[in-house]
Design the sequence.
């Protein structure tokens, strides 16, 4: 059954990809296949949640794999906050293992939004050529190992429960046209006042000894004195 989210090919051969906002769009592909380049070409910088950037933000080095847990916690937090206000989340990570994909799928499920995976199906030789040309190379053994995982991922993905699996070949990645359809998920509204208003909100008048009968001051109470930092 065709859905709005389904990809379609126009007569011109142009690949039209329809996505819903909010949703979680998981890019899947080995190192140097062009995930970040593709994302930057087709999405706003703020729509892209990148595992490299999350690592850089938590530990100053996007290549430092020791802080995966912290980087993923940040990635997850960003996705949750964006989904809670009906924003699109394009996750730029390799997503090569079932647990990595499952975690993102469950996040989408938790917020009742579609979970989409975009398989960037680029030949191994292209990934190696891209890697050789870039400043931050990861090296042939890493790419070959990731490519094997990628082949397994391509076979497994369709049974993992994603609402849509979109396969883009190398030539599609440049020609693709992304259309985003806004279909908000109703969320309970929060009535939280901005912090500065909460801080200066008038308190009920206190009955102080010797102050009986005097009108309550029109002036809002002063904020509590700052605590010295330790
Ligand atoms: N279509 C393309 N044509 C030519 N060069 C490309 C193309 N796509 C990406 N590149 C180049 O290949 C290199 C790797 O691309 P990119 O960083 O987007 O890959 P990646 O999949 O995000 O890699 P990683 O998983 O390591 O983050 C970059 O130097 C980029 O400029
Ligand atoms: Mg990248």
Sequence:
């Amino acid at each position: 059954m065709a859905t709005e989210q389904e990809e379609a090919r126009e007569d011109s051969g142009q690949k039209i990809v329809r996505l819903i906002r909010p949703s979680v769009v998981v890019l899947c592909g080995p190192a140097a296949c062009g995930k970040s380049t593709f994302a930057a070409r087709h999405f706003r910088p703020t729509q892209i949640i990148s595992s490299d950037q999350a690592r850089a933000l938590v530990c100053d080095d996007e290549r430092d794999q020791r802080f995966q847990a912290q980087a993923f916690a940040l990635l997850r937090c960003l996705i949750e906050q964006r989904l809670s206000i009906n924003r699109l989340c394009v996750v730029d990570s390799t997503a090569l293992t079932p647990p990595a994909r499952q975690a993102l799928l469950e996040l989408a499920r938790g917020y009742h939004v579609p979970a989409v995976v975009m398989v960037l199906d680029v030949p191994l030789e292209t990934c190696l050529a891209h890697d050789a040309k870039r400043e931050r190379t990861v090296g042939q053994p890493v790419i070959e190992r990731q490519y094997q995982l990628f082949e397994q991922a391509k076979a497994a993905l369709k049974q993992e429960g994603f609402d849509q699996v979109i396969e883009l070949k190398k030539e599609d990645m440049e020609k693709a046209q992304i259309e985003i359809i806004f279909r908000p998920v109703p969320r309970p509204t929060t009535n939280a006042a901005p912090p500065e208003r909460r801080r200066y909100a008038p308190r009920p008048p206190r009955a102080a000894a010797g102050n009986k009968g005097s009108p309550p001051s029109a002036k809002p109470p002063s904020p509590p004195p700052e605590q010295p930092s330790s």
Observations:
- The domain at 8-182 is CATH 3.40.50.300 (Rossmann fold).
